[in-house]
Amino acid sequence: MRDGLPVLEGQRQELHQAGLVLDQARPGAAALVVSAARHDPETARALTDLSGRERVGQIVTGMDRERAAVADPNVRADRLIGCWQELHKERQALPGWRHEEARSKVEGQMRQIAGAIERDPQVESIVRTRAMELGIGSPQRDRSIALQMERELTRGHGIGLER
Q1: What is the pLDDT of residues 31-67, one digit of tens each?
Q2: Coil/strand/helix, residue 16
Q3: Residues 120, 73: contact at Cβ < 8 Å?
Q4: Cβ distance 55 to 47 under 8 Å?
């Protein structure tokens, strides 16, 4: 994790076990910690640089900040759009049949984002006004933004992909 080193299988199992214990104490807490660590630099720093009560206090505070952030549809929309843009760049860097497997994996993640947007009407409304950031252009009023995102994925299959 830190210093670019891979997570060992034993560490992965311990993290999983810790997540289960955390979720027993407070349902959904493990996912909240992961999200806070990803989006909140103070929480990430607490996980890597602090220990004991100080670490726990900072993580709990970070979880509170993250809970407030994910309650805001604008934050959810920002994060989903940002993730879509990152994946779009990654997809563009995987042309040709040699990268078919990796590109399919990225496209699967992009479809998950489209699904998350489709399941959240508040976010879909916000994303619709920001469709240009997704590379969609002018969204069609009678179609869900998720369908238009899917169309963008399938349209890109023939563009710039050496076959």
Answers
A1: 999 999 999 999 999 999 999 999 999 999 999 999 9
A2: helix
A3: yes
A4: yes
